[in-house]
């Protein structure tokens, strides 16, 4: 086997991080287009928001199939195709004149593209390239994917405000195309380079299946017959509901209800993203050392406590107690991913990345449900208080689900299809 001073796995990890950061920026764009599109075309906000909802759902549902496609065709082919879809979807928006075209471009094309670069992509890369430090690398890559959206949001909003929404869409198109050669150059498989995964002491069998859709569905069928899958999926659905769905969508309008400017509230969300980098990387490091069940239980319980006190922290100005919440909540924003990935691999073996894709789909469905439910609470009750309290209680329930997971040998899943020659 070829020996190099710097193992190729680290180059793959760096490029994966860049791809994830870029993908997060692509996902952030639709939220800043809502008001400009409404002003220019007169489309109802509900219609424009439907594109975001389609994007959010496809972002989750695409993940398991993308993971299976990566097993069949390799990581770089799938990622290059996904980035090209994003460029196509973003670029075509400058020519649209009907709302259904928005649903197609930002909802379907960008949703499918970014969904192929979701957290299942992280699980696939770390599964193929890392034996040692897998948890730490998972944490770093997850931080890139989860935080990029929050970091890019203020910049995209400013670009849209000063140069117009078409300029922002074209910038996303150019950024997407710029990622293509980088992904094609470095996102290779260990076998392509004649090396072992980082930390491997012997050959690691490659899983290649003839039918990716069948692989994804059979992995779901096998996993769905087990208790751990539903415990993990249930907890992760609550994770999505209490992050992207609730806080990511409604924190800014909730703060505005209390007199805080939208710019200030958006900046606080960006700070959440910055502290998420620290929290998720630390979570990856802890996942290599502490039982993932205990980590998930702790993360969900602490998140629940923070959401229960949040209604009392809103004010017209940023007070120290709100800053304390932002830091604390940011550390826990998506720290749940590394231990969830580790548990999927523990329970489902080689099918772990594909199964995690389905678990991640539950995350997005939970987010979509919470985004709608919180809006209904605001319309009905006049404020978000009940939404925050309900999310806090749900987080406590997620902690209980995680602590219910038992130690056991990996659960059998359907036998993989015969490897291709």
UniProtKB/TrEMBL annotation:
Gene Ontology MF terms: transmembrane transporter activity
Q: What is the lineage of its organism?
A: Bacteria, Bacillati, Actinomycetota, Actinomycetes, Micromonosporales
Which species is this record about?
Answer: Virgisporangium aliadipatigenens
Ordered alphabetically, the record's keywords are: Membrane, Transmembrane, Transmembrane helix
Where is this chain's protein located in or outside the cell?
A: Cell membrane
Q: Which residues form the signal peptide?
A: none
Q: Does the keyword Membrane apply?
A: yes
Any transmembrane segments, and where? 9-29, 41-66, 78-95, 101-123, 135-157, 163-185, 229-252, 264-286, 298-316, 322-343, 355-374, 386-405
Cross-referenced Gene3D superfamilies: MFS general substrate transporter like domains
Quote the SUPFAM superfamilies the UniProt record gives.
MFS general substrate transporter
Example of a GO cellular component annotation carried by this entry: plasma membrane
The protein depicted here goes by the name MFS transporter
- Principal cellular location given in the protein's record: membrane
Q: How does it sit in the membrane?
A: Multi-pass membrane protein
Give a yes or no for keyword Transmembrane helix in this entry: yes
């Amino acid at each position: 086997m070829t020996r190099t001073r710097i193992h190729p796995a680290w180059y793959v990890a760096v490029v994966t991080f860049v791809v994830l950061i870029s993908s997060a920026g692509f996902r952030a764009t639709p939220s800043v287009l809502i008001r400009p599109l409404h002003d220019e075309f007169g489309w109802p906000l509900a219609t424009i928001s439907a594109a975001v909802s389609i994007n959010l759902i496809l972002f989750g549902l695409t993940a398991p199939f993308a993971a299976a496609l990566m097993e069949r065709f390799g990581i770089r082919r799938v990622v290059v195709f996904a980035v090209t879809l994003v460029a196509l979807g973003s670029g075509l928006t400058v020519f649209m004149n009907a709302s259904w075209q928005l649903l197609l471009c930002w909802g379907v094309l960008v949703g499918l593209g970014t969904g192929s670069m979701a957290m299942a992509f992280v699980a696939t890369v770390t599964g193929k390239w890392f034996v040692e430090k897998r948890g730490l690398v998972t944490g770093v890559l997850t931080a890139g994917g989860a935080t990029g959206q929050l970091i890019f949001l203020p910049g995209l909003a400013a670009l849209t405000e000063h140069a117009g929404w078409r300029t922002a869409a074209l910038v996303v198109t150019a950024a997407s195309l710029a990622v293509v050669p980088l992904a094609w150059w470095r996102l290779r498989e260990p076998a392509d380079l004649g090396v072992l995964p980082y930390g491997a002491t012997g050959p690691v069998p490659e899983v290649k299946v003839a039918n990716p859709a069948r692989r994804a569905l059979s992995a779901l069928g096998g996993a769905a017959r087990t208790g751990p899958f539903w415990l993990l999926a249930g907890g992760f659905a609550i994770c999505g509901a209490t992050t992207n769905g609730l806080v990511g969508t409604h924190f800014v309008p909730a703060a505005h209800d209390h007199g805080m400017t939208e710019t200030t509230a958006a900046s606080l969300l960006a700070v959440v993203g910055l502290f998420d980098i620290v929290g998720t990387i630390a979570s990856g490091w802890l996942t290599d050392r502490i039982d993932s069940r205990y980590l998930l239980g702790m993360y969900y319980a602490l998140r629940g406590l923070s959401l229960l006190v949040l209604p009392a922290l809103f004010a017209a100005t940023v007070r120290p107690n709100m800053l304390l919440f932002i830091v604390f909540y940011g550390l826990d924003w998506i720290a749940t991913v590394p231990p969830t990935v580790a548990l999927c691999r523990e329970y489902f073996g080689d099918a772990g990345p594909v199964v995690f894709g389905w678990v991640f789909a539950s995350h997005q469905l939970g987010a979509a449900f919470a985004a709608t439910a919180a809006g209904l609470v605001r319309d009905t009750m006049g404020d978000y208080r009940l939404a925050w309290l309900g999310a806090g209680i749900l987080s406590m329930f997620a902690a209980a689900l995680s602590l219910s997971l038992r130690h056991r040998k990996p659960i059998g899943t359907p036998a993989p299809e015969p490897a291709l020659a």
